[in-house]
Amino acid sequence: MTPPADPSTYFRKGFGLKSEVKDELAAAYDGGVVDYLRSNDYALTVEDVTIRLAREFGFCYGVERAVEYAYQTRRKFPDRRIYLVGEIIHNPHVNDRLQQMGIEILAHPDPTGAFDFGNITQEDVVIMPAFGVTIDDFSALREIGCILVDTTCGSVLNVWKRVESYARDGFTALIHGKYYHEETRATASQVRKYPDGHYLIVRNMDEARIVCEYIEGRIAAAELMSTFSRAVSPGFDPTQHLRRIGVANQTTMLARESLAIADEVGAAIARARGDDARATDFRSFDTICSATQERQDAVRELLDDGIDVMVVIGGFNSSNTISLAALCAERVPTYHIETMSAIDPDAGTIHYRLAQIQHAEADASNWLPAGKVRVGITAGASTPNNKIGDVVIRVLATRGLSVNL
């Protein structure tokens, strides 16, 4: 079991230094271009180019809170070594800035293994990221006795409660997420609070349908396990642990896919064992965070209004940004970029992550259509406003245009 948090060394509500770090945060992340867009109905037109910004974008409350707590921690402990358990959020600019402040990011040699805390002492300070950490990592840090600053997002904590309740009641948690993602690993670990708790992680509908095929007796247990060998709990036995299922999700996944997966699994149980089995042996709750849902809804609204090309800004390892790009790519040419440096106005090129193709990147020339064009812009929940503004300026510069606000 996870040891109880010691209030003298465990902090989850900051240090009361919000006003002291406010100006520093604003200087690092606020942006005048975004402020202008907001005050002008989220639009900017310069000659033939119209920029349209989605009405929900960028930093969410959980990200703002995590970053602010990191700044408060540095202010509270100016002379102590401060470590961060992996990236605080998936944005290169934000993580680079924290490192410049003297916060050391602990690298993860194996995305499915435990962190190495061998250099951490009782005198050190450790920040846990917005994604949370696994039960084992938390226990290891508590044993060291260091000061812990917990920035785990409240939406993530809600999912933890859900999967813990599944395990308590004898249901296997079927989690829509990426088995190697920090949040999903932390969520999955919550079932281990119970000796018989188990989980299985599916990345998408295709993988969910494999689970459904097993439930309906169309594939054998060995075939199922060959697909999910790295995405199941220790000691997982499909013959026992796929009888009762509760669905949850990584909070940043594509919302409609999470809901569809739940429907598909519930229907498979009904087809295999009847409606009564579905009623007693299946549970599902929508655990997509509100910020993720709002950003996805805002993108759909923007696309419905009419856009010729979309630029989606955020880390290439940011799940919520990847989900936004996937939505956009269904409707218009879409370019998921990390920073303004991806756009070369002189060459007319853009370097981007291909939507829906894992880890694939490409370069495109003449990506901005000639003539009158409407460019949609959105950003993942870990992208600061000033970085969004930088991209707007680069988009305009691709046409040889500038803006004075």
Structure description:
- The protein is α/β, with parallel strands linked by helices and 405 residues long.
- The chain has three domains: 30-60 and 290-398, 4-hydroxy-3-methylbut-2-enyl diphosphate reductase, catalytic domain (Cobalt-precorrin-4 Transmethylase, domain 1); 62-152, Rossmann fold (3-Layer(aba) Sandwich); 155-284, 4-hydroxy-3-methylbut-2-enyl diphosphate reductase, catalytic domain (Cobalt-precorrin-4 Transmethylase, domain 1, 3-Layer(aba) Sandwich), CATH 3.40.1010.
- The chain is built from 15 helices and 17 strands.
- It has helices at residues 18-29, 32-39, 61-76, 92-100, 135-144, 154-168, 182-189, 205-215, 221-228, 238-241, 255-273, 275-281, 290-305, 319-329, 385-398; strands at residues 10-11, 43-46, 49-53, 82-85, 103-106, 125-128, 147-150, 172-176, 199-202, 245-249, 282-284, 309-313, 334-337, 343-344, 349-353, 361-365, 373-379.
- It has a five-stranded parallel β-sheet with strand order 1-7-6-4-5. A five-stranded mixed β-sheet has the order 2-3-17-12-13, with helices on both faces.
- β15 (349-353) and β16 (361-365) form a beta hairpin.
- The radius of gyration is 22 Å and the shape is globular.
